[in-house]
């Protein structure tokens, strides 16, 4: 008598679980920061540009001359907020628009899209890299301004709170705008030729290189449409005395308007970016 044995079903092997989004985003942030610091030319430009421009303005206008007689505000102190604002834009908008377009051009985005890494982790990594580098850049700029040019820094928590939310909201807005803008140029090599002039023009009309109240009215209205003007104005409310609000065209710091304009740009760029972002080159299908 023969007996038959029923073969047992093969044991199922469970696929390894993916790490959580927070862990993936942090790992991607570390990778992005490392990759950023390997680009020496970009690192030097992003960190040195605001410091060099502050030094130039302090030399040209004089670090001891007051902006207005009896105001107690010297030119380095007035131009510091504009340099902080332009540093935020360089670290966020210009940096991401250029780097993401280059990654699309060389096929990095296409290969990355074929991996299990969620798209959200990639974008969170980019945003984390921008926040970290912008923070280091701003700390360096404030150190130089305080040590070399004796610019007084805020000594109360309220001003530092204003600095924190303007910095974070401005950086996030610039980052999202950079991601959305990265799909506009036809190639990675043409991105700098498009992005740099835009940033430079905005610096001239947004009160970075000149006193904003002395600019023509039409130029002030144009600047009021874009985030850089509001980031610079928010930073002036942090580093200038309260009486300096009289130098603003509105006569006040307009914190509410600053938050609204930056939030509108953040949401608008997010919507545009979701609809237009490309993982491949235009000629790659």
Q: Could you explain the architecture of this structure?
A:
The protein has one domain. Helix 3 runs antiparallel to helix 7 and helix 6 packs parallel to helix 10. The mean pLDDT is 87. The longest helix has 31 residues. The protein has 285 residues and is an all-alpha fold. This is Transport permease protein. It is found in: Cell membrane; Membrane. Belongs to the ABC-2 integral membrane protein family. Its main location: membrane. InterPro entries: ABC2_TM, ABC2_TM_bact-type, ABC_2_transport, Nod_factor_ABC_transporter.
Quick synopsis:
The chain is mainly α. The chain has one domain (21-280).
Which helices and strands occur, and which strands form pairs?
Blueprint: H1 21-38, H2 40-61, H3 75-105, H4 108-113, H5 119-148, H6 157-181, H7 191-205, H8 217-223, H9 227-239, H10 255-276
Helix pairs in contact: 1-5, 2-3, 2-5, 3-5, 3-6, 3-7, 3-9, 5-6, 6-9, 6-10, 9-10
Question: Characteristics of this structure?
Answer:
single chain; mainly alpha; 10 helices; Transport permease protein
Please indicate the percent range of residues in DSSP E strands (runs of 2 or more): under 5%
Question: What does the largest sheet look like?
Answer: none
Q: Helix-strand pattern, N to C? A: HHHHHHHHHH
Rg measurement, Å: 24 Å
How many structurally independent domains?
Answer: 1
Structural class: mainly alpha
**Outline type:** elongated
């Amino acid at each position: 008598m023969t007996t038959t044995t029923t073969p047992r079903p093969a044991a199922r092997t469970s696929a390894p679980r993916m790490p959580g989004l927070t862990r993936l985003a942090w790992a991607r942030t570390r990778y992005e920061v490392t990759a950023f610091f390997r680009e020496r030319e970009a690192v030097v430009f992003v960190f040195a540009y605001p410091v060099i421009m502050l030094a130039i303005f302090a030399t040209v206008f004089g670090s001891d001359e007051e902006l207005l007689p009896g105001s107690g505000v010297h030119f380095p102190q007035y131009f510091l907020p504009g340099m902080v604002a332009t540093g935020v834009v360089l670290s966020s908008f210009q940096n991401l628009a250029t780097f993401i377009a280059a990654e699309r051009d060389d096929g990095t985005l296409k290969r990355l899209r074929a991996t299990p890494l969620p798209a959200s982790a990639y974008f969170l990594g980019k945003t984390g890299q921008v926040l970290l580098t912008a923070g280091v850049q701003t700390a360096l700029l404030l150190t130089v301004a305080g040590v070399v040019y004796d610019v007084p820094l805020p000594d109360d928590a309220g001003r530092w709170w204003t600095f924190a939310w303007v910095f974070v909201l401005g950086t996030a807005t610039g980052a999202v705008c950079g991601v959305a803008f990265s799909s506009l140029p036809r190639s990675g090599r043409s991105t700098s030729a498009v992005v740099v002039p835009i940033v430079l023009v905005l610096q001239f009309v947004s009160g970075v290189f000149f006193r904003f109240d002395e600019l023509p009215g039409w130029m002030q209205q144009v600047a009021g449409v874009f985030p850089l003007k509001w980031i610079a104005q928010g930073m002036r409310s942090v580093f200038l005395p309260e009486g300096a609000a009289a130098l603003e065209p509105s006569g006040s710091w307009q914190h509410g308007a600053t938050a609204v304009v930056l939030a509108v740009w953040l949401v608008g760029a997010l919507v545009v970016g979701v609809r237009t972002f490309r993982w491949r080159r235009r000629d790659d299908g």
